[in-house]
């Protein structure tokens, strides 16, 4: 068992989805009593296009990722982001970047994005890769199905 004094940083993968906003909230609920910092990490890449010319600049993709990240932080915490929360953008694939980040983290928290009733029961490719390859414990946060939420 990890002692609270050993928790230094909780890294949260933020992609703007409802589940990543919930992951921010769950991570903060853990970070506060443990005295840990929370780092919201959003990854961005330039899409691979084969037969098309890209007019957009790399900064356009970075700026878009930054907006997604800021929107998620606002949805999670309102206009006052807690003092223990920092945000960082990383150029690269989410799998590789978050595996790298997990080396210096006490915990990695991710939202799981399901697609439909059947597919929603399966981990996404990023979540499943990180559960297997991360260098720290991983918490995967799942939103309840709409049907489950309304029947509860």
Automatic annotation (TrEMBL):
Pfam families from the UniProt entry: Usp
Record InterPro entries: Rossmann-like_a/b/a_fold (IPR014729), Universal_stress_UspA (IPR006015), UspA (IPR006016)
Domain UspA: 7-141
PANTHER family associated with the record: STRESS RESPONSE PROTEIN NHAX, UNIVERSAL STRESS PROTEIN UP12
Family, as annotated: Belongs to the universal stress protein A family.
Name under which the protein is recorded: Universal stress protein
